[in-house]
């Protein structure tokens, strides 16, 4: 049951993260800049979780765990976002997305080396299917070397974030950890917003999109990811997260009329097969023997 709950939480996280690009597209069209968007995203998310923490009467993390969580937010989450957004200035969005989705492979390697995670045929097969599916789904194209470097660094930083999170989540709840991560990331982007100037949503629909990005694309996916991470481990969590581009592509086709190419559908199908393989393996461990 613990494994099933973890799988369900990561699936919810991936589906919710899939709305990020959609809400972001609406907000950019409404006049927002990247730094202001990310600052408001994280500061409002932190306020929501502060209220939840008070209602649940949970204390704030302390000591070494607090320092690790601040690092995860200020360096890991904020750093990954900055590198990703820098990468798309120098390479196509598809190529950047593909390179970012190298992170399940990086997490797998780091887990085997540092966490002594067992290598199984199901994980190896799911990893291969998921990476292939991501490549077909995002439709990569060319880009400058600097953009490629930024994207690979983004994947690396996010992989380390997940590995550290796997250890930290054994000591705190998803709400406690997410609050510190959001607050730390908000501090970074708040500083950048002050330096570069703020550009807020210009309409009421823009503010509704901001609310969507805070709840649907931040609070829900990050808390469910961290909760699922504690239950099924970093490799499984990162592999299941490859559902995210499938959700994004489907939403873009529905809301913006973007065409779904046959190769994109094949990529999405491969990711779903990877999820099924991994889920069956987690629910029936004897299949790995």
Q: What is this structure, in a nutshell?
A:
It contains 13 helices and no strands. It has 289 residues and is mostly helical.
Helix-strand blueprint:
Layout: H1 2-17, H2 20-29, H3 34-56, H4 63-87, H5 93-100, H6 103-114, H7 121-138, H8 145-168, H9 174-196, H10 204-232, H11 234-240, H12 243-256, H13 262-283
Helix pairs in contact: 1-10, 1-12, 2-10, 3-9, 3-10, 4-8, 4-9, 5-7, 5-8, 6-8, 6-11, 7-11, 7-13, 9-10, 10-11, 12-13
Characteristic terms for this protein:
globular, mainly alpha, 289 residues, 80% helix
What does this structure look like?
With 289 residues, the protein is mainly α. The chain has one domain. The protein has 13 helices and no strands.
